[in-house]
Amino acid sequence: MWESFWFEFINFYFIPGLVLGCIYALGAIGITLTFGILRFANFAHGEIMMTSSYLTWEFVLVASSFGLILHPIIGAIPASICAIILALIVDRLFYKPFRNSPTIMIVIASFGMMLIIRSMVQVIWGPNQITFVKGIAKPNPIIKDFTSSFDIMLLIPNKHIFILLGTIIIMLIFNYLLSSTKIGKGMRAVSDNPNLAEVSGINVENIVKATWVVGGFCAAAAGVFLAMDTQFIESTMGFRMLLPMFAAAILGGIGRPFGAVAGGLIIGLAEELSAYPWLGDGPVISPGYKSGVAFSIMVIMLIFRPSGLFRGRVF
Amino acid sequence: MNSDKILSINNLIAGYGETEILHNVSIEVHTNEIVSIIGPNGAGKSTILKAILGTLDIKSGEIFLLENKITGIKPSDIVRKGVGYVPQTDNVFVSLSVHENLEMGAWTIETNLKEKFEELYNLFPDLKDKRNQLAGQLSGGQRQMVAMAKALILNAKVLLLDEPTAGLSPKYRGEIFATIQRINKSGLPVLMVEQNAKQALQISHRGYVLVDGSNRYTGTGQDLSSDPDVALMFLGSRG
Amino acid sequence: MEIFLGYFLYAMSLLTVGGIYALLALGLNVQWGFAGLFNAGVAGFAAIGAYTYALLTTAKSQFHFGGLELPLIVGDIMAMIFAGIVATIIGLICIRLRADYLAIATIGIAEIIKLILKNETDITNGPRGINKIPRTWEHFTEERFYSNFPMNFISNPKGWEVFFDSIPKWWWQPFFACTILTIVIIIYFLLEKLRVSPWGRMMTAIRENENAAAAAGKNVTKRRIEAFILGAVIMGLAGAFLGQHLRLIEPTQTFDPSKMTFLVWVMLIAGGSGNNKGAILGAFLIWFVWSSSELVTNGFIEILATMFDSVDISILKNRAGFIRMLFIGLLLQLILQRFPKGILPEKRPAISGKSQKYAG
C-alpha cells in the first residue's frame, strides 16, 4: 500500500505545483528574454498572457456557434498568433521610440501598456470572471488504473497532462531554437553582451523582433495553460502572474532562459508546497498568503544573490 | 586621392553628448600597415576607435573607409562595410562557445563559412581544440584570440584593436603581438591602441601619439621609439 | 441657488481629491523626480497611511483592532511614520539595485500590503474594510468628539447638537478642502527649500552621474534611501487624508495597486517630473480630466441611448470606467513620446540618454 503521505503529497501538492511551475516557467521565459535582450522589466507581459486566454475562449466560442467543439489547445493556435502580433505592435508603437532613451522610459511605457491592454480587454469582454472550461476535471482513468496496479495511484486530470506535455514540447522546441538556429544564437549573444553584438554586425532589431515572437508565443501558451488549469479567465489574471514570473526570472538569473524555467518550477512548487501541513495540522503558510511566497523568494534572492541561481546579469 | 589609404580620419572633433573628448584628430591607415596610437591615460585613445565605429557623437570631421564616408551611419552597418573591431573588455560572448562566437562574427555572411572557419582555425590553432568550449571559460589571452578571429571573419578591410594586451601576462602579450603581425602579413591593415607603447611601436610601421584629445607626434614606429620627447613621456616609465 | 450649491460642492470635492493626489504626486516626485527611484507601489504606501490613520482614530470597534480613538493629528503623524518605516525596510533591501528591480520590488510590496490587509482580519477587518473613519472638521459633528474634551469645554453636547443642526450639513466641506490645499502648499514650500538645499543639489548630482557623485565621496545609497523614505512619508499622509475623504476603506478597490499608482505616475509625468509645481499642476489637471471624462463618457452613453432605443446601455455604462482608463493610458504614452519633460519641465539639465548608454 502506497503510504497515504505520498499519495496525498504527490497528487494534491506536488503535481499541482509542477503544473503551476510550468505555467510560471513559460511566462518567465518572455520576461527574462525581454529583460536580457531589451534590458527592461516588461510589466505588460502578464497582460499578453491574459489577452491570449480571452482570445482562445473567443475562438472556441465562435467555433461552437458553427457547431465545432474545439479543444482550447486548438483555439490557442490562432490566439497565440494574435498574441505575437499584439506584442510586435506594442513594441513598434510604444517601446521602439525609447530604444536609445534611459531604459526606465520603456519601463514606464510598459507600465502604461499593462493598464491599456487590461482596459481594452475589460471594455471588450467586461470585468467579470468567465468560465473557460465547464465541469470538474476528473483524473485520467488509464493512468489511475495503471499506476494503482503498482500501488502508486496517481490522480492526474487530463488538463494537467496537456499542460505538462505541452510545456515539455515547447521547451524542446525552445532549446533547439536557442542552441541550434542562427536567430536563437543571436538572441543569446545580444542577451550576453548587446554592445558587442552591435559592433559584431548582428542585426539587433531583427533579434528584438524574434524576442517578441518567442516571448509572445510562450506568454500565450502560459495564458491558455493557466486558463485550462483554473478553468476560468478574468482580466486581472495576468497581473497576478506578473510577480511570480518576475520572481522566477530573477531566481533563475536574468537573461538565462533555462534559469527562468527552473525558477518558474521552483516558485510553482514552493507556492503549492507552502500549503502542505509540514508542521502539525494546518498549512505552513495560510492560503491567503500563497501569492506572497514568490515575492519572499524574490526578495531573498535580491538580498543575497541578485545574479540568480544561474549567474545571470545584474544591472 | 591617395588610393593606398584604407582608413582616414580627418580633423575629427567628437565626444559623449556635451562633453568633447577628441578635439582635433587626423589619422591614416594605409595598405598592409600596422598603426599604433599611444598616449597617456585619458588622452582619448580608445575614444578614437569608438568614433570610427560610430558609437560616439561626432561634432565635425569625417572618417573614410577607402572612398566611402562612414560617419553618421549605424555601428552595425560600419562593421558590415569592413571595419573589424575588437573592444578592450567584454569582447567575447562569454555564454557562447568559441565556435558560436565566430558564427556571430559572421552574422551577415551566408555562404562559404566552412572554409572561412578553417582558415581562421589555422590562423589561431589554439582555438581549434577549444571550439566547443564556452568563451567565458578561456584565459584572457585566448579570449583575445577569439575576439580577433571573430572580428576577422567578416572579410574586414581594416582591423581595430583596443588595447589588445591589457591585463595579459608578458608571455601572452608577446603571443598576441606575434599574432597581430601574422594577421597583418596575411594582408590586413591594423589600427591599434596600446598601453604597452614600446612593444607596440616595435611591431608598428607607424605610430601616432595622442595627448589631450589631439595627435601631437606622428612618425614611423622606429622614429617614435627613439624620439626623446616621446620616450620621456611614455616609454621611459614603462621600460 | 440649489444648482450653484451643487457646483460648489462638486468643485470642493474635486479640490479635495485633487489635493490628495497632489500630495501623492509630490511624494513620488521626491522619489522619482529628485532621486530617480522608480516606485510602482504608490498605492501600497497610501494604504499604509490610510489604515494606520483609520485604526488609530476610529471609535472602538468589534470588527477590527482598536480603534484607539486617538486625536486625528496623531493619526496623521503616525500614518507618515508607518509609511516611512516600511519605506526604510524596502529601501535598505532594494535601493542598491537598478530602477527596474525597484519597480518590481515596490509593485510586490504593494501586493503584500494588500494581502496583509485582506488576510489579517482580526486587525483590519479583511475585505470588509474599516468604516466611519473620522474626517477632519466633519468629525466635530460626531458625538464622541463634541461630548469630550476639548469641545465640551466650550459648550455642552446639547448645545453643539443644536449648533450643528442650525448650520448647513456641508459646512465642513470647504474647510476640509482648504486644509488639504494648505498642506499641499506647506509641503510644496518645504520641498522647494529642500530642492535648493545642499541635500537637494546632491540628489541632482547623484541622479545625473551616480559614479561621479560616489567618487566625490557622497554616500549615494544613503541619500537615495532618504529620498525614498521622505517620498513615502508624504504618500502616507496623502493616504491618511484619502481615508478621511472616503470614510470607508478596504484593501482591493480603494487601493487598486495598478490603477492608483498609475494615475499618480501619469500626473507626475504630465506635470513635469523633477518639478514640484509640475507635480501639483499635473495632479489637479489629470484629476480634472479623469473626473470630467466620467461626465463626458456618461453623457455620451446617454446620448447613444436616446438615439438608439435598442442599444443596451447597461453594459456600456458598466464598462465606461475602462474606456476612461484606456484613454488615460494612451494619454500617458502620448506625453511620454511627445512631451517627456511634461508641462513644467525640470529646470536643471536632464540626463542625456546617449551618454548613459555608451559611458564606461
Write up this protein.
- The complex is a heterotrimer of chains A (315), B (239) and C (360).
- Chain A contains 12 helices and 2 strands, in the order H-H-H-H-E-H-H-H-H-H-E-H-H-H.
- Chain A is mostly helical.
- A two-stranded antiparallel ribbon of chain A has the order 1-2.
- In chain A, helix 2 packs across helix 9 and helix 11 packs across helix 12.
- The mean pLDDT of chain A is 89.
- Chain B is α/β, with parallel strands linked by helices.
- Chain B has 10 helices and 10 strands.
- In chain B, the strands form 2 sheets. A 6-stranded mixed β-sheet of chain B has the order 6-7-8-3-9-10, with helices on both faces. In chain B, strands 2-1-4-5 form a 4-stranded antiparallel β-sheet, with helices on one face.
- The N and C termini of chain B lie far apart (40 Å).
- The model of chain B has no long low-confidence stretch (mean pLDDT 84).
- With 360 residues, chain C is mainly alpha-helical.
- Chain C has one domain: ABC transporter involved in vitamin B12 uptake, BtuC.
- Chains B and C meet through loops of B and helix 16 of C.
Structure summary:
Chain A is an all-alpha fold and 315 residues long. Chain A has a domain at 21-233.
How is this fold's topology laid out?
The complex is a heterotrimer of chains A (315), B (239) and C (360).
Chain A: H1 4-38, H2 45-65, H3 72-95, H4 103-125, E1 130-131, H5 141-148, H6 158-180, H7 182-192, H8 194-199, H9 204-230, E2 232-233, H10 237-252, H11 257-273, H12 290-304
Antiparallel strand pairs in A: 1-2
Chain B: E1 5-16, E2 19-30, E3 34-38, H1 45-53, E4 57-65, E5 68-69, H2 75-80, E6 83-86, H3 98-105, H4 113-123, H5 125-129, H6 140-152, E7 158-162, H7 170-185, E8 190-193, H8 197-203, E9 206-211, E10 214-220, H9 221-226, H10 228-238
Parallel strand pairs in B: 3-8, 3-9, 6-7, 7-8
Antiparallel strand pairs in B: 1-2, 1-4, 4-5, 9-10
Chain C: H1 2-34, H2 42-57, H3 72-94, H4 99-119, H5 121-124, H6 143-146, H7 151-154, H8 157-166, H9 172-196, H10 198-208, H11 210-215, H12 220-246, H13 257-271, H14 276-307, H15 313-338, H16 353-358
Helix pairs in contact in C: 1-9, 1-12, 1-13, 1-14, 2-3, 2-4, 2-12, 3-12, 10-12, 13-14, 13-15, 14-15
